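The records we work with from here on pair a chain with its fold. These numbers are not coordinates but entries in a learned vocabulary of local backbone shapes. To see the layout at work, look at the sequence and tokens printed below:
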Amino acid sequence: MTPDILDILKSQNDILSGEALSDRLGVSRVTVWKHIRKLREYGYAIESSSKGYILKNGVDVIAPWEFPGWEDRIHYYPEVDSTMDVARKAARKGCPSYTVVAAGRQLKGRGRLDRSWASTDGGLYFTVTVRPELAPMLGYRVNFCASLALAKTLRDRFDVPAMVKWPNDILVGEKKLVGLLSEMETRSDMISFVNIGIGINVNNDPTSVAPEATSLGRITGMPVARKAVLSGFLDIFRSRMEKDDLSTIIDEWKDYTLTIGRHVRVETVRDVFEGKAVDVDEGGALILAMRGGRTQRVIHGDCFHS
């Protein structure tokens, strides 16, 4: 019913009365009003007056029916504490692979090492659940695949020179555009699910709280459709995930990295390491050349380029 009302409004160039909508759909005006309210909650700009309703142009909404072929996988919330929290509950209940939980805002968005992630209006915040047939020790490949797929999406579909920073951030001109966070749960000797949480600065302005960040709107000089970003990513990500066992994903990822060859500082829960990043090994760990000629293998942490 809700998509039907939306389709009718999209086809009109003028105000359409509630009576006309109820007649066309065979429902009461109260029912029409309830679905109009639901559409507004999704973010559709619908103006109402004594004469009826009109849908404003330029709508960019993350609603299931806006993603042909993905309708049963997209779940949108105007506001949540964290899409990761919602997705975790859904994954534990058995939601299918490539289920997406998206939100207009997050009240408690977070990044690595429990750092907060500003999640203001205009950004794209979502978590995608995948169920790869991989052993837990190979779960890191999913993270690298997601990072690579997003960089390719931004490059191929938006002509944005996106690069990856170990372990999985996306930078443009040394400024952070995207943050990724993953969680994994196992069952027996296989992965049960991996949740990839992604925050993309699209049409929001993150610089007030993160001067080192940027957004797609700033880079392109114009508003960018969030649903186009999400749709492009899902298509590329699923295609690459289903291609093979991801055994070559690290080498593919290296073609887009800014980290290798740079002097970096990596912060972990307990330690801080500084050195030259010389490689990312087959296990996804960053290899640092340290003072005195020794090397350091870092499995996880927050990486800062010098």
The CA atoms of residues 45 and 56 lie 6 Å apart.
